[in-house]
């Protein structure tokens, strides 16, 4: 009979000596054992249970696999207490008793919470990962896809798949409901799927590292990962950031250096960051003349879309066609707060990045901390009222 638990051996003599116990248990295998006959002393003559061998508690730890034997005593579990009590009284114990043998390393892996693998030769091929893992790192293992065995680790909080050759992420990563940190640095990813953005990661994911991949754009739904505090996008091929970046209200660390960003989205100014790094992008100079795409009167599609969004009317593919849902998801936000679909004025201005971040890495070798921001206006009136911003 074995129990995997945390064990602290307490001496009741310590307080009398002015000493204290450690107050901290260690992972161990606690067994109710029966000592081997050849090592037991012969029971005294006349003993009622002379033919039986006494039971004992046996504690084995990772450092002491041979274990230490103790007389049977109480345990935290009722069933174990009952078995110990019966054994201590010399009664028959219905539970199977273990033999006094050293514990195998695999016994401790059953409750292992952290595993770090940094080479192919150490990668487990013939056995599963311990189901109790909370932190798993498999770097430099040559993985070309995410191992499905990892997706069964329901307690996982930190997953590090950096320095591999992964090209695509399975949507089932979103089933890891406790996942807080996901490191995909230095892989071959070309996208981050909408399915992941709309999964349970919306509530759990705090830190995401997508640096050193081949991502050109992130979906609009990416901004639904609103619990993100740290986001690394360095060394990709990004030509734009999601224009609803301002919805990432918990974001504090953003690094998107060495990409191909020509400008920042208008909602970028709504961020409140502690650290921002946009060095090495191809920021363009603000255009003097705006791009005008106004229509009078508004089309039926434009009017309907504005009404749905301005009044926050729920929508979805069961209600309206999927392509209309996509149009609504990608609607622009005017500086006045209203929405516009394809009828707008587009202008560009510059923004000092210190207005959104406490610490700013220079955007170029000239010591600049300004970047172009693209803005949208739903009407000529909004544009005229905001013309001072575009000078």
UniProtKB/TrEMBL annotation:
Pathway of action: Protein modification; protein ubiquitination
InterPro entries for the chain: Leu-rich_rpt, Leu-rich_rpt_4, Leu-rich_rpt_typical-subtyp, LRR_dom_sf, LRR_domain-containing, PIF1/LRR1_PH
One of the Pfam families matching this protein, by short name: PH_LRR1
GO annotations of cellular component type: cytoplasm; nucleus
PIF1/LRR1 pleckstrin homology domain location: 1-72
Alphabetical UniProt keywords: Leucine-rich repeat, Nucleus, Repeat, Ubl conjugation pathway
Keyword Nucleus appears in the UniProt entry: yes
Cell compartment(s), UniProt: Nucleus
Task performed by this protein: Substrate recognition subunit of an ECS (Elongin BC-CUL2/5-SOCS-box protein) E3 ubiquitin-protein ligase complex which mediates the ubiquitination and subsequent proteasomal degradation of target proteins. ECS(LRR1) ubiquitinates MCM7 and promotes CMG replisome disassembly by VCP and chromatin extraction during S-phase. May negatively regulate the 4-1BB-mediated signaling cascades which result in the activation of NK-kappaB and JNK1.
Subunit record text: Component of the probable ECS(LRR1) E3 ubiquitin-protein ligase complex which contains CUL2, RBX1, Elongin BC complex and LRR1. Interacts with CUL2, RBX1, ELOB and ELOC.
Protein name per Swiss-Prot or TrEMBL: Leucine-rich repeat protein 1
Species the sequence originates in: Camelus ferus
Top-level taxonomy: Eukaryota, Metazoa, Chordata, Craniata, Vertebrata
Gene: LRR1
């Amino acid at each position: 009979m074995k129990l995997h638990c945390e064990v602290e051996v307490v001496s009741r003599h310590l307080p009398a000596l002015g000493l204290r116990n450690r107050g901290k248990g260690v992972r161990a295998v606690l067994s109710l054992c029966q000592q081997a006959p050849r090592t037991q002393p012969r029971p005294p003559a006349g003993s009622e249970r002379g033919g039986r061998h006494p039971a004992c508690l046996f504690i084995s730890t990772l450092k002491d696999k041979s274990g230490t034997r103790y007389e049977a005593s109480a345990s935290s579990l009722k069933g174990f207490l009952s078995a110990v009590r019966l054994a201590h009284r010399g009664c028959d114990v219905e539970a199977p008793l273990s033999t006094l043998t050293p514990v195998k390393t695999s016994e401790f892996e059953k409750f292992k919470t952290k595993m770090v693998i940094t080479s192919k030769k150490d990668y487990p091929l013939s056995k599963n990962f311990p189901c109790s893992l909370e932190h798993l790192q498999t770097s430099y293992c040559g993985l070309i896809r995410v191992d499905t065995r990892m997706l069964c680790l329901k307690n996982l909080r930190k997953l590090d798949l950096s320095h591999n050759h992964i090209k695509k992420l399975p949507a089932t990563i979103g089933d890891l409901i406790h996942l807080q940190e996901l490191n995909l640095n230095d892989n071959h990813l070309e996208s981050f799927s909408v399915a992941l953005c709309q999964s349970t990661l919306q509530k759990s994911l705090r830190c995401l590292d997508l640096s050193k991949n081949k991502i050109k754009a992130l979906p609009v739904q990416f901004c639904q990962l609103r619990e993100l505090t740290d986001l690394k996008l360095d060394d990709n091929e990004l030509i734009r950031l999601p224009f609803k970046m301002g919805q990432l209200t918990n974001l504090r660390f953003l690094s998107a250096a060495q990409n191909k960003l020509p400008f920042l989205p208008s909602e970028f100014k709504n961020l409140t960051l502690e650290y921002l790094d946009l060095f090495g992008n191809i920021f363009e100079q603000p255009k003097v003349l705006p791009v005008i795409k106004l229509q009078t009167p508004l089309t039926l599609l434009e009017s309907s879309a504005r009404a749905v969004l301005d009044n926050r009317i729920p929508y979805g593919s069961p209600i309206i066609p999927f392509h209309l849902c996509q149009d609504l998801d990608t609607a622009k936000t005017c500086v006045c707060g209203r929405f516009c679909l394809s009828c707008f004025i587009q202008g560009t201005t510059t923004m000092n990045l210190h207005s959104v971040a406490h610490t700013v890495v220079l955007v170029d070798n000239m010591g600049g901390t300004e970047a172009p921001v693209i803005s949208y206006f739903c009407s000529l009136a909004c544009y005229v009222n905001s013309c001072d911003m575009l000078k």
